[in-house]
Amino acid sequence: MQILFKNIKELLQVREDKIDFISGKEMCVLPTLKNAFLLVKNGIIKDFGTMEDCPNIDAEIVDATGRMILPSWCDSHTHLVYAGNREGEFVDRIKGLTYNEIAENGGGILNSAKKLQATSEDELYKQSKKRLEEIILLGTGAVEIKSGYGLTKESELKMLRVIQHLKENYPIEIKATFLGAHALPKEFENSKPEYLELLINEVLPIIEKENLTDFIDVFCEKGYFSVNDTKLILEAGKKYGLQGKIHVNQFNAIGGIQEGIKHNVLSVDHLEEIRDIDIEALKNTQTMPVALPSCSYFLGIPYTPARKMIDHGLPLALATDYNPGSTPSGNMNFVVATACIKMKMTPEEAINAATINGAYAMNLQDKVGSITRGKLANLILTKEINSYNYIPYSFGNHSVDKVYLKGKEAKN
Ligand SMILES: N=CN[C@@H](CCC(=O)O)C(=O)O
Ligand SMILES: [Zn+2]
């Protein structure tokens, strides 16, 4: 099965060679080809070039006149498997309570855990697949999904099995992350070590046996899990071959970044509160910093200082953080726009951060994130637009016309 996209106004994120990620000044370059063709065979990018070299072959033809093609978004941080919603807390925040005050009053992550524990695996799958289908149509072609609203052995495994079923049933690339250390359940209020033991000695062995997880995560934050707890979780993950991707520096900078780097974590995510020593620590590492601007938008907390980080030579990835508490949105188009508008990233930087660097933050850089021969044909075909700057410019809207996963058009 071959598809030939012809007359593409501009083909974005064209990389002849596979690369891992890009950093600093390199991020403001977005390689493109104008008036291009793109050939897809059996779901894989076979060839591309300018229209002068367009092959004359037997293939399904898509005329992309006036429109652009880019690799689909790579969303490396979500919690999109959850039960119910938390719009009540949303109203409480409007009336003046903070995210942390709500959590202290029994809301927050524990509220979502209560709902999820009372929801069957089938029902959880039904609620979650709707969100997955929604983000696919918004242009996401690779996504990471975390557990962390179960907080008991049974419910954490229930979440991970739901993620497993989504992986089996949808053509989008999915990576699963075990986030048992997301919040301390009430029953363990005075016995945190026992909860960590449960995660490490009882849940992790089953996860390994059933091959349910790709990464391990922990919410390293005051009132949640300390730097030392983070160390224990990352060490335990390593024993099971799981690399870390951690929540750090959302509300307080307590040294989680440095601990993560010691354990060679794949990504450090959030980073709304970041000190100069944290930026220094991230230099020349293989750890991807990940910003979640929709979370800052929704909670009214500071944005990750992307400009400063990139100007210091760091790489950066952008992701949604799709979850019921801090970010009830999985729209990567909004993330890219907000990164430009609020974090002063250029459109080139934001698109790089939401494609190739996002792919790296899921260890998927060999499969997605750029227009490269041999990668999956996970693509966004835009509406008619004048320039790619229009993609972040038209915030709150989106420029996605069609989405292709493994070369097949994704439909409602
Ligand atoms: N900060 C920790 N976890 C989620 C929010 C969890 C929730 O409020 O349900 C986040 O990444 O923002
Ligand atoms: Zn998160």
TrEMBL record:
Q: What is its EC number?
A: 3.5.2.7
The record's section on Pfam families has: Amidohydro_1
What catalytic activity is recorded? 4-imidazolone-5-propanoate + H2O = N-formimidoyl-L-glutamate
Name the domain of life: Bacteria
Chain positions recorded as N-formimidoyl-L-glutamate binding sites? 149, 323, 325
Record keywords: Cytoplasm, Histidine metabolism, Hydrolase, Iron, Metal-binding, Zinc
Protein's recorded name = Imidazolonepropionase
Q: Which NCBIfam families match?
A: hutI (TIGR01224)
- Its Gene Ontology biological processes? L-histidine catabolic process to glutamate and formamide; L-histidine catabolic process to glutamate and formate
What's a GO cellular component annotated to this UniProt protein? cytoplasm
Q: How is the cofactor bound?
A: Binds 1 zinc or iron ion per subunit.
* Role of this protein: Catalyzes the hydrolytic cleavage of the carbon-nitrogen bond in imidazolone-5-propanoate to yield N-formimidoyl-L-glutamate. It is the third step in the universal histidine degradation pathway.
- What PANTHER family is this protein classified in? IMIDAZOLONEPROPIONASE, IMIDAZOLONEPROPIONASE-RELATED
Q: Where does 4-imidazolone-5-propanoate bind?
A: 86, 149, 182, 250, 326
Where, per UniProt, does this protein localize?
Cytoplasm
For the keyword Mitochondrion, the answer is no
Write down the required cofactor(s): Zn(2+); Fe(3+)
Matching SUPFAM superfamilies, A to Z? Answer: Composite domain of metallo-dependent hydrolases, Metallo-dependent hydrolases
List residues binding Fe(3+): 77, 79, 247, 321
